[in-house]
Write a structure and sequence with these properties.
Number of domains: 2
Largest sheet: 2 strands, antiparallel
Distance between the termini: 71 Å
Number of helices: 8
Shape: globular
Order of helices and strands: HEEEHEHHHHEEHEEH
Number of strands: 8
Strand order of the largest sheet: 1-2
Radius of gyration: 22 Å
């Protein structure tokens, strides 16, 4: 039975990926999608040739006025990582046809600039400046205090979110949303080891937010007052330990990068309390 999907040809997918240097076209991601595998004669690919307007009726952003060939044309495709390919189909009101075409155009322009600009030495200096920008994002109570000493879990969650946004997009904001500084997201770091570590940091930060959200939903902690002090009590001590150790691991990862570029490592004074 013939497929009712107007899928891309393999040659179209190949060109789509190469035009953006095998990177995800989401400007907030820019993750590499192709690399070596354990098999020396093969490679790993996590890229997806996604349709901007759906390949079949019922799909996201489906356009009934398009012909079969128009749906299969490279103009209707965008190269994304697997995560972002699912993301754009989760909310077609947010991820519109116009927005995806802008992503695609921007990613192709960046790929051209990558070929035309900067020597390896310039890349090293650019990377160092980016790392210095990222480091300041961690100089906040959310990474200094024990989790039970947070004044507000809502503010803590927002601080973690702000750090993720800063690493992904290069935008550092105040609590009211005002932009303090603006740089580039982690995808622009050229050193592959540093870039991979930054991706790992974002993964841990995302895990912290998810686990905290589940804990709040399940009533796994509550705020307690003792005299003038306000602190959180966790029903599960292991959750408290994990939230503390995860942030310490983030600082350890960032410190290895600091050591590489010759700046002070992240060793914030840990405020400890006992009652």
């Amino acid at each position: 039975m013939a497929s009712k999907r107007d899928d891309f040809k393999e040659t179209t997918k190949d060109i789509m990926a190469k035009r953006v240097g095998y990177r995800c076209s989401n400007p907030s991601c820019r993750k590499p999608t192709c690399g070596a595998s354990d098999d020396p004669n093969n490679y790993s690919n996590i890229g997806v040739a996604a349709h901007i307007c759906a390949a079949a009726r019922g799909g996201k952003r489906y356009n009934p006025d398009m012909s079969k060939e128009e749906r299969r044309d490279i103009h209707n495709g965008i190269w994304l990582c697997q995560t972002c390919s699912k993301l754009i189909d989760s909310d077609d009101l947010r991820y519109t046809v116009d927005l995806l075409h802008k992503w695609k155009s921007l990613s192709e322009e960046i790929a051209i600039l990558d070929l035309e600009t900067a020597s390896p030495a310039q890349f090293v200096e650019q990377d160092k400046e980016l790392i210095r920008f990222y480091i300041q994002c961690f100089d906040r109570p959310a990474f200094r205090d024990e989790i039970r000493m947070e004044f507000s879990m809502e503010d803590f969650d927002l601080a973690i979110e702000d750090t993720i946004i800063a690493l992904n997009t290069g935008v550092l904001r105040t609590r009211d949303g005002s932009i303090i500084k603006q740089s580039e997201g982690k995808a622009f770091v050229q050193n592959p080891d540093w870039r991979e570590k930054l991706y790992n940091v974002v993964d841990v930060l995302t895990a912290i937010r998810r686990r905290l959200s589940i804990a709040a939903r399940d009533g796994a902690f509550y705020q307690h007052r003792k005299g003038s002090e306000i602190f959180y009590v966790f029903h599960d001590p292991q959750l408290e330990i994990w939230l503390n150790s995860s942030r310490e691991e983030i600082l350890r990862i960032m410190s290895t990068i600091c050591k590489d570029i010759g700046i002070p490592e992240l060793h914030f004074p840990r405020h400890r309390y006992s009652w």
